[in-house]
Design a protein that fits this description.
12 strands, three-stranded antiparallel sheet, 15 helices, single chain, alpha+beta, about 400 residues
Length: about 400
Amino acid sequence: MRGQGRIYQRKYRDKRTGDTKSAATYTVEYYVDGTMQRETAATYGEALRLLKRRQGEIAQGRRVNPAGERLTFDQLAEHLVNDYRANRRRSLERVEDAIAHLRVAFRGYRARDISSDMVTKYVVERQADGAANATVNREQAALKRMFRLAAEKLGGYCPAIRMLDEDNVRQGFFDRPAFEAVLAGLSDELKPAILTAYITGWRIKSELLSRQRHHVDVEAGWLRLEPGETKNRKGRMFPLVPELRAVLERQLAATREYERRSGQVVPWLFHREGTPIKSFRRAWLAACKGAGLARVVTRGDQAITYPLRIPHDFRRTAVRNLERAGVPRSTAMAMVGMRTESIYRRYAIVDEAMLREGGDKLATFGETEHTAMVMPLPKRRRDTDTASDTASQR
């Protein structure tokens, strides 16, 4: 096939026999801006389709990059992680988790072989695993970002990715027994930070693990976040209630003891032998699994563990506890760090105990009202006056 390109099998001489032989693969040749480009295909049919696609791309003025044909999903995933690290995105851990799920379905595939039908199949399988639509959408967004980063190499190719409708108001929270079961499965280095998150509802990675010792004012009784350190860029303070004070005082004492033994200065409030804690995802999965708060799903030859509770559930738990304690809403919002009342209401989950308490209050009110209704009415003054008048006339 000549003109704008051709397909042929290369000839070579066998060094052992001296015979001329044809290569097992087919070579595709075409020209881009006067420069010859060569690609190979396993069969003639594949080579013909490849050449026609290249001719179409050239006719449309699209950039042709043969290297894009060899790009695999794993390479796309690596580029995405590097992009997040280079831009210091705080959601790196979340995107790595999304990639772990995507890799189960797309590992080994060339980027151009990932079709819209494959993406739809992936969505159906994730939903069957019990993943929420919001979770699946975050994973699809990661996949879409991969293709956008490689758009130049792939000639703009990207499978159609359709986002799902979301109902992202989570209902997860911890009751005390479940929390203590998870806490028991964590290492001693993690327990103080997790217990602090349970009490305060502060974000663990960005707001607690970044705390240094000077952010704790034991005498004044505050744990502080400086302006600019929070998601809404505002500072925040949480009072050292007795349980929180006890946790932080033990942690400070343990840090001083470590400094004495090691001879090094540790500025961090929570740490692993003087080193700041960066990630605890695997430890969390293991603790949830040990506490019976995880689900294991088998896909192919892989067993994937899904925790039934996530660290962000501590925010919902703290809001619920503040509501149950009768803390005014504006005060609770300032303590946990929520900008608007609408966001606060999403976190103010009513659990079974609160509903039962409400039922008890209603029952008490009903009994009181019923008693008031059956009490004998006092005798009317008019009847008394009439009886007196009749007696006097006699």
